[in-house]
């Protein structure tokens, strides 16, 4: 498990929401000492890991390190498929605004891909 990647994601989400580490710990249901230890490079226990990835709303496998020979044989998700759930999770936006953002992102990605093919 890539504890550094998890900690970086937590830090980014914490800052984006204007939270202190203590508030993040309380909201996610872990102890402040756990997030403090993670800041010092320690890995969370399984229960802490689950609580933190659930708080982030991200799949646990995002933070997994796979030995090359054991890496699951899955195709890589498109950028659109990765971004859409993030935009859909934005509760402060109305549904039509979320869909508008998704449509704009998808249109922009298609534009860049077409431009790249034209080179």
TrEMBL record:
Taxonomy, superkingdom: Bacteria
SUPFAM superfamilies in UniProt: lambda repressor-like DNA-binding domains
GO molecular function terms noted in the UniProt entry: DNA binding
Domain HTH cro/C1-type, residue spans: 10-63
Pfam families reported in the protein's UniProt record: HTH_3 (PF01381)
Protein's name in the database: Transcriptional regulator
